[in-house]
Design a protein that fits this description.
mainly alpha; 161 residues
Length: 161
């Protein structure tokens, strides 16, 4: 027997579904508007914030994306994606060095995560830390072989070719 969402959650889910739909249609401002129509008390729910991150990404609102991802990282510390999102956004409105610092800290918590290692290798390579980047990328690819193909075309890793 499946459990249905509580009636108070239905309006939120409706808005979230609409926001995701708008994102999929390439209409991020409409997605933003859907999120803004969610009651203020519900906008801090993790499921709303996760969609907010994606809307910020689409709108290139890097600073807000970093802030929301940082908040999500604190309330859902087991989700590695929040650190990746925070670093991605931070790189775009601050620097690769600050993004790399976020991932260096994340690496302590998610030591075996290939995506943290891969992205850290990218940032280090762009920063000119080529040998460190090469070692980190090799470790990432050992953990996830599919990253080798991605690395072959990743512009951030040109310095390793």
């Amino acid at each position: 027997m499946s459990s249905l969402p509580s009636p108070d959650l239905l309006p939120i889910l409706k808005r979230l579904n609409a926001a995701v739909g708008y994102l999929n249609l390439g209409m991020p401002q409409d997605a933003w508007n859907e999120l803004e129509d969610i009651e203020a008390k519900d906008r801090a729910r993790p499921e709303v914030l996760k969609v907010r991150v994606e809307v910020c990404r689409a709108l290139k609102q890097w600073e807000m994306m970093a802030e929301v991802s940082n908040h999500l990282r604190k309330i859902e510390p087991d989700e590695v994606g929040h650190s990746l999102d925070q670093a991605y956004a931070t790189r775009r409105f601050k620097s690769e060095a600050e993004a790399a610092e976020i991932l260096s800290l994340a690496l302590r918590r998610y030591y075996d995560d290939a995506s943290v290692r891969y992205n850290l290798a990218c940032y280090w390579c762009v920063m000119g830390r080529v040998e460190e980047a090469r070692e980190m990328l090799e470790t990432a690819c050992k953990k996830d072989e599919s990253l080798r193909e991605l690395a072959e075309t990743d512009e951030d890793l040109v310095g390793l070719r």
